[in-house]
Design goal:
Butyryl-CoA Dehydrogenase, subunit A, domain 3, 7-stranded mixed beta sheet, 3 domains, about 525 residues, homodimer, Aminopeptidase, alpha+beta, two-stranded antiparallel sheet, 9 strands
């Protein structure tokens, strides 16, 4: 595919088929339809469906082959497993519909997990032996013999507790396309699990995730800069997977790879020409306050004048790698690289979305308004503070300003109700009124600081992006009003964005104190909003 | 290091120090000496060694830090482990003497293996639960809850059976130099184990080997051609590690990377500029019969005239990866690459040493000669066949020819004794006598064919190189007289070499029948020697 074709693709804004090699192929849908039926209606098979018997037989046979190849991959001895049987399974799996993949994965999870009779037998043997060091041992040759037996049985027990499907994963991983295929299998599993929990499949997923985590160890990943000179087949993936600030056209893409910009990706040798995760960097004079400055500054400043590397977008490309933190080492390595390349750059910051802010705020406003109504409608706002779960999250002067400015745009008995009505999507009419903007800014900025610094789940920041950067060793530097006025930005965080700053000399210390004590480092400016100075 | 320096290095024929980054550093030897003593003499510490107290304290402190950093890497929570503590351990380990490394590794093997109290507690919990499917289950929501508990406990048990030192391995593997470091740790372990078996360390080794095998999955390895344009730092490694046919000078090296030659290496992204294994290929008109043709054909033929790719040397570079078969996929991938690049090449063969032939033959000759003497010295050779373990491995006409031709060079009552005396190193005088050469050729060629095709250990070819190629799917094509007249070639196999042939269309089939039935495919020419046609 050349760059002209890429341009056409971008105009068409279609999901290119060949991007997802392992996605469902439309030609096999009919086949799958029948396969699925033939399985579902097994009880009626001897009835009126004679006319379809032949076609079904052929299709059943085809599915039989897929299960058969899966079984072969698992049960053959390792020297016997050739590429042909792996290919057969790989291609067979890809030809299945989602429903048939689901059935196959459930078979794998339930019928290829453990040989529990063997586990129990080995446990019996194991419990019959005295563990080393349990009695005074002389350390002689006889003991070494006993110890060898003990370690052997312990090892056998450990191996017997590995699910049988590990063999499938291990063997697929030796296939040239195997790692990519395994991540797409995991993407399927995650989709299935969103429909409802299935314990056996959940167990399989957690096992597969462990394996993928080892295989994708940072040691096996290579950091490369992505430039306009890279193949269009790679660049179209950047366009396709950019998750934070969509790339709107070819000029936009070229801009993000050109002067004053950098793009780095983590690659694995088994998944060539496709970054697993990539990060976009802008070289600036100061830490940007709005995403507009970053995406549409034209012309960019000379690179030699830059003092700040701003990470403005991090996107992962493989849904099947969800929950595997690849970004941690990425940011550290990019910082190292940029420092070597451009010693005049001393500030490493992000301009990040706050994806969970509005969700948290709206649910807080809704529940508090409801509480207030239900428990005591007649009390004055000041009296309500006595109620057990009630909390007026607005300051008195914020409440007053909201009531004064809302006018016709939003009704409500309290400041919180008004705020809830104003902020509830889909419209964002408040952004068109200067009066509302100035009434909303103080409570929104204050509550955003509170959300980022104080709202936690199991000791970690509630916001997923905040948690990501904090565990990587960043600090909260600044929150920016009207920093992302896109539909998405307004929906997620009322347009507010945040700068996290990475100080190379503090990265380890901050990551550790965040981890061990849940401590969130932040600047004076952000702390000031919530007066925890 | 530039190529001039490389040339100087090769003239000096020294082992370059920096090739083995993790090897013992001479400057730390004195320190180690004292460390080692201070540990060994702990009981006498309060005695006459007062003068050394201060120095010892300092050194003990230094060693304390190394053990402490090992402990930290293992016991810290994963988000807390930073590069600094990994570096501390890595550098600390490298500064230790072999003896102190031994002590540290034994501590690791014995004190960081399993928490066996926890294992027993989890076994108790596990045995208290009914495994899924053991009773009729309705598949309802309640069952899913029970199953989740069951899988969780099973998973906990599995995790508890993983040695604690796995954490050290996993974390080192995230360090940029970690994988290389782990292979050198394994090399140390293997050296320690050659001195005597230690069950706990053997168990640690087998665990580390499993981990390395997963990390070095073919999916994580990249195949690259190595050329004269590569950095000298890489080329010196080729010179240093070439294990089959030593590279004698810079012209020899250049020749092996030039016209009519190829060199391919398997690289891992975590071990840059150092192939884990490499293979040397000659492009020829016919399958070479002697190594002289390959190493000293001058000038080589035009590449366009070649029809045969001859693999004449495979060397692995990491002693710490012993027992991990990297070569299998290497050969398959090189064949694929060469076929794409040069479609006129249709024959893929090796010219291989037979490293175990003479060892097998000499011990066979020695034991049979002894048996003959001990059991019945007076019987005629024909009568001896009745003895239980006795086997005259020579044919009557071979025996006669040997007795006739040996003259003053070797004494002996039987053909076998004469043969034993002639072939026993260190001299190879028989190679200077045409009479002896022609008397020895028939039995040596016949017995070599027998050794390759019939002598087995646990169903596999006794010869390690034969086993390697046969399990990769090759066949035995031809054995070649006086094919390697170097000292090493004469010692290993009386100068005989063998051609294995890879037929791309048969590779899988041959590998499978070798594996499952121990079947060794061979040509008519080789079978003829032992008349198994």
């Amino acid at each position: 595919m050349n760059k002209k074709a890429l341009a056409i693709l971008m105009r068409a804004r279609m999901r290119p088929n060949h991007l997802t090699n392992f996605a469902l192929s439309p030609i096999s849908n009919e086949l799958n339809q029948i396969l699925s039926n033939s399985h579902g209606n097994r009880s009626g098979e001897n009835g009126e469906h004679h006319a379809m018997e032949h076609g079904k037989e052929k299709l059943n046979h085809q599915r039989f082959i897929i299960y058969e190849s899966m079984h072969s991959v698992i049960s053959m001895n390792k020297t016997e497993v050739g590429d042909s049987v792996l290919n057969e399974f790989l291609e067979g799996y890809c030809s299945l519909s989602f429903e048939n993949r689901r059935k196959l994965l459930l078979t794998l999870a339930k019928e290829y997990d453990l040989n529990r009779a063997q586990v129990r037998e080995l446990i019996k043997q194991y419990l019959g032996l005295q563990p080393p060091g349990s009695e005074a041992q002389s350390g002689g040759v006889a003991d070494e013999g006993f110890l060898s037996t003990f370690y052997r049985i312990e090892r056998n027990l450990r191996h017997s507790l590995k699910p049988v499907y590990e063999t499938l994963f291990e063997r697929l991983n030796t296939h040239p396309e195997g790692l990519k295929f395994l991540t797409s299998i995991r993407a399927d599993i995650l989709s299935i699990l969103t429909e409802g929990n299935i314990a056996s499949l959940r167990a399989l997923d957690s096992y597969l995730k462990e394996k993928l985590t080892t295989w994708l160890s940072p040691a096996a990943l290579e950091l490369h800069q992505i430039t306009w000179d890279d193949p269009a087949s790679l660049l179209e993936k950047i366009v396709f997977y950019e998750a934070v600030h969509p790339i709107s056209n070819l000029i936009d893409l070229k801009r993000r790879l050109g002067v004053g910009r950098r793009c780095f990706g983590y690659f694995h040798s088994a998944i060539p020409r496709e970054p697993l995760i990539f990060i976009e960097v802008a070289l600036l004079k100061n830490i940007a306050e709005t995403i507009q400055e970053v995406l549409w500054d034209n012309p960019p400043i000379a690179e030699s004048e830059a003092t700040c590397a701003l990470f403005y977008s991090i996107s992962s490309t493989q849904p099947g790698l969800a929950g595997i933190n690849l970004g941690k080492f990425l940011i550290k390595r990019v910082i190292t690289l940029v420092k070597i390349d451009m010693p005049h750059i001393s500030v490493f910051a992000t301009l990040s979305p706050i994806p969970g802010f509005m969700q948290w705020l709206l649910s807080k406003l809704a529940s508090q308004s409801k509480l207030a109504k239900a428990e005591d409608i007649s009390r004055s706002p000041a009296d309500r503070s006595g109620l057990t779960f009630y909390e007026n999250i607005l300051e008195p002067e914020e409440e007053r300003a909201l009531i004064d400015s809302s006018g016709d745009l939003a009704s409500g008995k309290s400041g919180m109700e008004i705020m809830l009505n104003l902020l509830t999507p889909p419209t964002h009419e408040w952004t068109n009124s200067d009066k509302l903007l100035s009434a909303l800014k103080p409570p929104l900025m204050r509550l955003c600081a509170r959300y980022l610094l104080q709202e936690k789940k199991r000791g970690k920041a509630l916001d997923s992006v905040a948690n990501f950067h904090l565990q990587n060793g960043a600090m909260v530097q600044r929150i920016n009003w009207m920093a992302d006025q896109s539909e998405k930005g307004l929906n997620q965080s009322a347009g507010i964005m945040v700068n996290y700053v990475y100080r190379p000399e503090n990265i380890e210390e901050y990551a550790q104190s965040y981890f061990s004590k849940g401590h969130i480092h932040s600047s004076y400016d952000v702390k000031r909003y919530i007066q925890v100075l």
